[in-house]
Design goal:
The protein is α+β, with helices and mostly antiparallel strands. The protein is built from 24 helices and 20 strands. Strands 5, 11, 15, 16, 17, 18, 19 and 20 form an 8-stranded mixed sheet that branches. A hairpin with a 6-residue loop joins strand 15 (about 625-630) and strand 16. Helix 10 (about 210-220) runs parallel beside helix 13. The chain is globular, with a radius of gyration of 31 Å. The model is unreliable at about 1-15, about 310-325 and about 435-500 (pLDDT under 50). Pfam families: UCH (PF00443), Usp38-like_N (PF21246).
Length: about 750
C-alpha cells in the first residue's frame, strides 16, 4: 500500500510542521517495504534536517521524535544501493552545512541526529566528508561560513549530549580545517569558546570519550596561544580540585591530561618571556603554577600534535610553508611496490627538493619532478601517478603483476643516472629506456673455488633480469618459481660490482652512493688483495641463531661487516702461493653514504614448496645505527626516517606501504590513505608486517626543507596549479550535479 504523501516542511518549522514530520516518519517506519521516488526521498531527508534545526526543547522532550528520526534515516541508508546512499548522505550533509554555517542561524543541536547517516563509517570516511564541507565553506567571504559552523559545533557539544557521533564529527571537522591551514579560524573561534569547553570537564560523568579527546585536541593545539592560556587559567585550579577528589579511573585520566597540557602551556609562556615580563608572569599566575606543581606531569599523547600557528591570512599563499596535508598515491593494480618507493624518496628531502628545483629539463627526472611537485602542493589528498609510472616502468615490471620494491628502487636509480646529463627537449618517452647499466637485482653468489676476488665480482655482475627476489603486490596471488630460478641460500654479504669509483657528477651517487673496501688475506703467506665496490644499498642477511633470538638492525650490520673465513669450496686463489688457500675476508666502509638504504633479507627459499617464505624472526629496528669506517676507530652514525613495510606471511604475495617522518612526525603512506603514525609505530608492527627497506640519514647531514610553491620552477608551478584547478572544478561539478 502506498504511503500518503506529506509536505514535511514549510518555510518555518512550527509545532504543526513538527507534528507533520513525526507523522510522516511514523508512517514510513510502519511500512518498511515502501520506498518513495528518489527525488522525493532526497528532498524529504533535507526537509527533516531543516525542521530539526528549528526545533526547540530539551533532550528528554525531543527524545521520542529523535529516536524515530534515527530509525528512519538508518533504515533508508541501510536499504538503498551504494550510489543512492551516497546521494542521500551528500544531500543531508549539504543541507546540514548550509544551516550550521549561517552566522544568523541558531540551529538546534537536535539537528546533529542527522549525523547518524555517518554511523558505521571509518575515521577516514568521516574525515573525507568533513574535508568536502570545508572545501565547500572556503567559497564564502573571509571564511565566514567556516567560522560560523565551527562556533555552532562548539555550542552543540556544550549543550547537547544525545548524539554519540557529535564528538567524532567535530574532531574530523577540526582536522579538515587543520589540513587546509585555517589556523586563524581555529584559534579565533576556539579561544572564544574555550571557557565553556573547559568547564565541561567539571562533570566527568557526562563527558564521553570522543568529546574529551576533542577538547584535549583543542587545548593541546592552543598551547602556544596566550589568549587561550588566559582562558584556561581562569578555570584550571577549580578543575584540578574537582578531578582530584574523584578517585574514578576516568577522572584520573582527565586530570592527567589537564595537568600535562596546562603545564606545557605555562612552560611555553615562560620560555618566550624574560626579565621583568617573566617575573610579572610568575607573580600573576603563581597560584596556578603552585596547583600544577602538586601533580606530576607526563608526556601526553596530545602534546605530540603540532600547535596551531596564526597566519593572519585566509587565502592560500604560494610562498607559505608546505601544508600539513599529506598526499597518497592511487594503486593502479599491484603498484604498491612503486607507491611505497615514491613516498620514501619524497621523504628524502635533499633528493626530492633537488629533483623539483634542478631537474626540470632532464628525461625521466622531469616526470619524477612533476609527480613530486604535485605530492608536495596538491590540495587533494590523493594523486593518480599513472603519468609517471607509464614512462618509468620497464618491460620487466609488468602491469598487474607482483614486484619487489627494492628491485624497483634499484632499477629507478640506474634509469635516472643513465639520463642525468641529457636534455628533455624533444625526448621521446614512447621508446624504451636505454640504461647505462642494468638495474641491480639480488643475486645469491658464493665465492667459487679457484677464482680470484675479481673473478667472483665479474660473476656477481653477470646476473639476469629474471630475479628470484620476492615480488609482493596487493592481490595476494602467489607466484610459482621455475626450477632454474632456484639458488642456494643467501650469503651474509651480497654485493654488486657496478664501477670502481663513485661518479662525482652523479647526484644519485652523491646522495645514496658509498664505497665498500674488501680485503682478502691468505692465511698461509698473509698476502692480501683489495677490491672496491660502489653500493647504493646494503642487503643484510640473518645469521643462524637459536629459536627466539632477538635480532636488531645493528646486529645485522655487525654480521655483514664481520670477518669471514673462506675455506672448502670457497677457498681463495692466492696469486703469491699459486694455489687455493684458506683466507680471511673483511669488509669496511671506505666512503660512507649520506643516506643509507638497508634491505633486510628476511625470507628463505623453500625448495619443496617453491616459494619464498618469511622468516618471521623477532627483530628490533634501531632508530640509530653506525657503520664501521676504514680506520676502524671511527663510525658513521645514521638515524632512520623512512621504512618500506611488507605486509603478508610470504614474500611471494602481500602488500607494501611506507612509514616516513616529516619534521619529527611519523606518517603511514598506505597507497592513497595517509594517516599520522605513533613515534614507536616501527616497533609495534604486527608479526606479519615487517620492514623490508629501511632509509637512514647520516647524523651530520641536514634534513633539508620542502620548497614552497612559489619557489618551484615555472614549469612545475603551472603543473601544480593546473592540477589543483582541475580538482576544484571536479568538486564543483560534483556539487552542481546534485539536486
Amino acid at each position: 500500500m502506498a504511503v500518503k504523501k506529506h509536505e514535511v516542511l514549510h518555510e518555518t518549522c512550527s509545532k504543526q510542521a513538527l507534528h507533520a514530520l513525526a507523522q510522516y516518519i511514523d508512517m514510513m517506519n510502519e511500512q518498511p517495504n515502501y520506498m518513495p521516488p528518489i527525488q522525493e526521498l532526497v528532498k524529504n531527508c533535507q526537509d527533516i534536517v531543516k525542521c530539526l534545526a528549528s526545533t526547540s526543547g530539551q533532550e528528554d522532550q525531543l527524545w521520542d521524535l529523535l529516536t524515530t528520526v534515527e530509525e528512519f534515516l538508518v533504515r533508508i541508508i541501510s536499504t538503498v544501493d551504494s550510489a543512492l546512499r551516497h546521494e542521500i548522505v551528500t544531500a543531508i550533509l549539504d543541507k546540514f552545512y548550509s544551516l550550521i554555517s549561517d552566522p544568523e542561524s541558531r540551529a538546534c543541536p537536535a539537528m546533529s541526529v542527522a549525523l547518524i547517516v555517518l554511523d558505521g563509517m571509518d575515521e577516514e570516511a568521516s574525515l573525507s566528508a568533513a574535508r568536502w564541507l570545508v572545501q565547500r565553506g572556503e567559497n564564502g567571504p573571509n571564511g565566514a561560513g567556516l567560522r560560523a559552523s565551527l562556533a555552532c559545533l562548539y555550542r552543540w557539544i556544550h549543550e547537547w549530549n544525545s548524539t554519540p557521533a557529535l564528538g567524532d564529527w567535530l574532531l574530523a571537522y577540526i582536522k579538515a580545517l587543520e589540513e587546509n591551514e585555517h589556523f586563524d579560524i581555529l584559534i579565533e573561534v576556539s579561544v572564544e569558546n574555550l571557557c565553556s569547553l573547559v568547564m565541561m570537564l567539571n562533570d566527568p560523568t557526562s563527558v564521553r570519550q570522543p568529546v574529551a579527546d576533542t577538547i584535549f585536541h583543542i587545548l593541546a593545539s592552543l598551547r602556544e596561544s596566550s589568549g587561550a592560556f588566559e582562558k584556561v587559567a581562569q578555570h584550571v585550579t577549580c578543575l584540578l580540585v574537582v578531578l582530584a577528589t574523584d578517585s574514578g579511573q576516568w577522572s584520573r585520566q582527565l586530570l592527567q591530561n589537564v595537568v600535562d597540557i596546562s603545564t606545557a602551556m605555562i612552560r611555553y609562556m615562560m620560555s618566550i618571556l624574560n626579565g621583568v615580563a617573566l617575573d610579572k608572569f610568575k607573580d600573576k599566575y603563581s597560584f596556578v603554577i603552585g596547583c600544577l606543581e602538586r601533580h606530576m606531569s607526563s608526556s601526553s599523547r596530545f602534546l605530540q600534535l603540532p600547535p596551531w600557528k596564526a597566519r593572519n591570512v585566509t587565502l592560500p599563499n604560494p610562498n607559505c610553508h608546505v601544508p600539513l596535508r599529506k598526499v597518497g598515491l592511487l594503486n593502479l593494480g599491484n603498484t604498491c611496490y612503486m607507491n611505497s618507493v615514491m613516498q620514501a624518496l619524497l621523504a628524502t628531502k635533499v633528493f626530492s627538493s633537488h629533483v623539483v628545483l634542478r631537474m626540470t629539463a632532464v628525461p625521466y627526472w622531469a616526470k619524477l619532478g612533476a609527480l613530486f611537485a604535485k605530492m608536495m602542493h596538491s590540495i587533494s589528498t590523493k594523486l593518480n601517478p599513472e603519468e609517471f609510472f607509464k614512462v618509468v616502468r620497464s618491460p620487466f615490471f609488468t602491469k598487474d603483476n607482483q614486484h619487489d620494491s627494492s628491485e624497483f628502487l634499484g632499477y629507478l636509480f640506474v634509469l635516472l643516472q643513465s639520463y642525468e646529463h641529457r636534455s628533455d627537449r624533444h625526448f621521446d618517452y614512447s621508446r624504451p629506456a636505454v640504461l647505462a647499466s642494468r638495474p641491480r637485482q639480488t643475486p645469491n653468489v658464493y665465492y667459487q673455488a679457484g677464482a680470484s676476488v675479481s673473478d667472483n665480482e665479474r660473476c656477481e655482475s653477470s646476473y639476469s633480469f629474471r630475479s628470484t627476489s620476492p615480488r609482493p603486490g596487493t592481490s595476494g596471488v602467489k607466484r610459482t618459481l621455475p626450477e632454474q630460478d632456484v639458488c642456494p641460500p643467501p650469503k651474509k654479504r651480497m654485493r654488486i660490482h657496478e664501477s670502481m669509483f663513485l661518479r662525482r657528477d652523479s647526484f644519485i651517487d652523491t646522495v645514496f652512493g658509498g664505497v665498500l673496501l674488501t680485503r682478502v688475506e691468505c692465511t698461509v703467506c698473509h698476502s692480501s688483495s683489495l677490491s672496491r665496490d660502489i653500493f647504493r644499498d646494503l642487503q643484510l642477511a640473518f645469521p643462524e641463531k637459536p629459536a627466539g633470538w632477538k635480532h636488531s638492525v645493528q646486529d645485522l650490520l655487525e654480521f655483514y661487516f664481520s670477518k669471514e673465513t673462506l675455506t672448502g669450496d670457497n677457498r681463495y686463489a692466492c696469486v703469491d702461493c699459486g694455489a687455493l688457500r684458506d683466507a680471511e675476508r673483511s669488509v669496511t666502509i671506505e666512503n660512507p653514504p649520506r643516506y643509507l638504504v638497508l634491505v633486510l633479507k628476511n625470507f628463505k627459499f623453500e625448495p619443496k614448496l617453491q616459494v619464498q617464505t618469511k622468516l618471521m624472526l623477532t627483530m628490533f629496528y634501531n632508530d640509530t645505527v653506525t657503520l664501521p669506517t676504514r680506520s676502524r676507530t671511527d663510525r658513521s652514525a645514521y638515524t632512520v626516517y623512512a621504512a618500506i613495510i611488507h605486509e603478508g606471511t610470504t614474500l611471494d604475495s602481500g602488500h607494501y606501504y611506507t612509514l616516513a617522518k616529516d619534521n619529527n612526525q611519523w606518517f603511514s603512506y598506505n597507497d592513497e590513505v595517509v594517516t599520522p603514525a605513533e613515534p614507536d609505530h616501527l616497533h609495534t608492527l604486527k608479526r606479519s608486517s615487517t620492514p623490508y627497506v629501511l632509509f637512514y640519514r647520516r647524523t651530520d647531514v641536514e634534513e633539508g626543507t620542502v620548497p614552497s610553491l612559489g619557489q618551484l620552477p615555472p614549469k612545475f608551478q603551472e603543473k601544480v596549479i593546473a592540477h589543483n584547478k582541475h580538482y576544484i572544478e571536479s568538486v564543483r561539478k560534483m556539487k552542481m550535479s546534485r539536486p
